[in-house]
Design a protein that fits this description.
Layout (H helix, E strand, L loop, with lengths): L2 H10 L7 E2 L5 E6 L2 E2 L7 E8 L2 E12 L2 H4 L11 E8 L14 E3 L6 H11 L17 H29 L4 H27 L3 H7 L3 H11 L12 H17 L20 H15 L5 H4 L3 H7 L6 H4 L1 E3 L2 E2 L9 H22 L3 H13 L6 H8 L7 H15 L8 H8 L3
Parallel strand pairs: 5-6, 6-7
Antiparallel strand pairs: 1-2, 2-4, 3-4, 4-5, 8-9
Helix pairs in contact: 3-17, 4-13, 4-16, 5-9, 5-13, 7-8, 7-9, 13-14
Length: 428
């Protein structure tokens, strides 16, 4: 049994009868269960109950066992002095507030509907993936699913927005620097994203713009800061040593401190995703877009945004995946799938924060609508829900389901989830 289930039973009043009695044998009538709170303090605020004919208005605290009151030291906390009812599953000891007054206790195990218990047992039974794995199909109607996905999508966008706002604070609202850092992180993908982010964060935009008159200058700054240009004498490669010379000059001129190349990972990556190739593509993108960064913040159409996210590589990298080791010539351009991932994970959240900072509510709606035009991501989370019959048509759906899995499923917050609540409400 979980405390969250007891809270849900109280909130929804899933009782077999209206004739309730406290553990102290007093009659109890619930007029309003109160407002469910996730903040510090009692679980429910402003509840209304009638005990032995007397109206009480105050807060309600919920525990599995009544002795949890003392385990959490509520008897010493004045915030709990206005608790008018203690709701528990198991009554093992009477409880008193900090003023010495005994608190009436309702033992819900005596009154809860059997169907609710059965649904709870099914929901919280061990599963290989998510709690509602075998119960998910047809739980919510299409309209209910859309409304829940909308909440989830906005939660995820807000979470990303908080991270962006923190970066903006750190850079005194340098939108170009923050955008560059986040685009770089996306180029690095899951495995090298953090390393790419740190590399970009250590390269001030003014330096890149000043020295960015040649693509090779940008490549030298990127590969040098990433730790790939270490004067390795065994490398007999003219291009490599050209980059080294330029990097040594810039490093001394701007007092730059390179990151360790050991933070860049090649293992289990396909050659087109090697960090060397992604850095070369990022350098090409920066060189060609360096004076148009802010266009990404207010360009509206999907097609125009994709044009701004095009990238390829310089001639050297068309015949290489790593330094000095030549390979068959191949054009290494960003795929449409990768470009859309950049839109979903970086550009849309940046546009959202930009629009919020300018109080452009209509733009927020447009930005949300843009995700519907983008293809759904392909990953384990999306596949899991698809296998259980959940419709995934676009990036709006996939982003919502990623939020659902990470924030609710992984933390067993089933009773805060529309799916979990629907399962428990069945036949009740």
């Amino acid at each position: 049994m979980k405390e969250a289930f007891v809270q849900y039973v109280w909130y929804k009043q899933l009782f077999t009868t209206l004739s309730l009695y406290t553990a102290q044998h007093h009659t109890l009538v619930v007029l309003h269960p109160g407002q469910w709170s996730t903040l510090a303090g009692p679980d429910f605020f402003n509840a209304k109950v009638v005990i032995d004919g007397l109206l009480w208005v105050g807060n309600v605290e919920v525990h599995l066992q009544s002795s949890d009151w003392y385990r959490h030291h509520h008897e010493k906390d004045s915030r709990y002095d206005n608790v008018i009812l203690h709701v528990v599953w198991d009554y093992d000891i009477p409880v008193f507030n900090s003023k010495g007054g005994e608190i009436p206790t309702l033992v819900v195990a005596h009154y809860v509907q059997k169907e609710a218990i059965q649904q709870s047992e099914k929901l919280f039974a061990p599963k290989s993936t998510i709690n509602c794995q075998t119960l998910l199909k047809d739980t919510l109607s299409p309209i209910e699913w859309y409304k829940w996905k909308e909440v989830l999508y906005m939660e995820r966008l807000e979470n990303k927005g908080k991270q962006i706002k923190q970066l903006l604070d750190e850079t005194t609202y340098n939108w170009n620097q923050v955008l560059f850092c986040l685009v770089a992180k996306s180029f690095g993908m899951n495995i090298n994203g953090d390393a790419f982010f740190e590399m970009a964060k250590a390269l001030p935009i003014p330096i890149l713009l000043k020295e960015g008159t040649e693509l090779m200058n940008i490549e030298a700054l990127f590969f040098g800061m990433a730790g790939f240009l270490q004067n390795e004498e065994e490398i007999l490669d003219r291009y490599y040593w050209n980059l080294v010379d330029r990097w040594n000059f810039y490093q001394h001129k701007y007092q730059l401190h390179p990151k360790s190349s050991t933070s860049m990972h090649f293992f289990k990556l396909r050659p087109p995703n090697f960090p060397t190739i992604r850095l070369a593509q990022l350098a090409w993108w920066f060189f060609n877009q360096q004076y148009e960064f802010t266009q990404l913040l207010y360009t509206k159409e999907r097609s125009n945004l994709l044009l701004l996210l095009q990238a390829e590589v310089s001639p050297y990298w068309e015949t290489h995946y790593t330094f000095y080791k030549e390979s068959k010539p191949r054009k290494k351009v960003l795929s449409p799938v990768f470009q859309e991932l950049l839109l979903v994970n970086t550009i849309i959240p940046m546009q959202y924060v930009w629009a919020c900072s300018k109080d452009l509510e209509e733009e927020v709606e447009r930005i949300t609508a843009l995700s519907v035009e983008l293809k759904a991501e392909t990953n384990g989370v999306v596949s899991l829900f698809e296998q259980e019959g959940v419709t995934v048509e676009n990036a709006f759906d996939s982003q919502a389901l990623i939020q659902l899995k990470k924030t609710y499923c992984n933390t067993n917050k089933c009773l805060s989830c529309a799916v979990g609540r629907s399962i428990l409400n069945k036949k009740n």
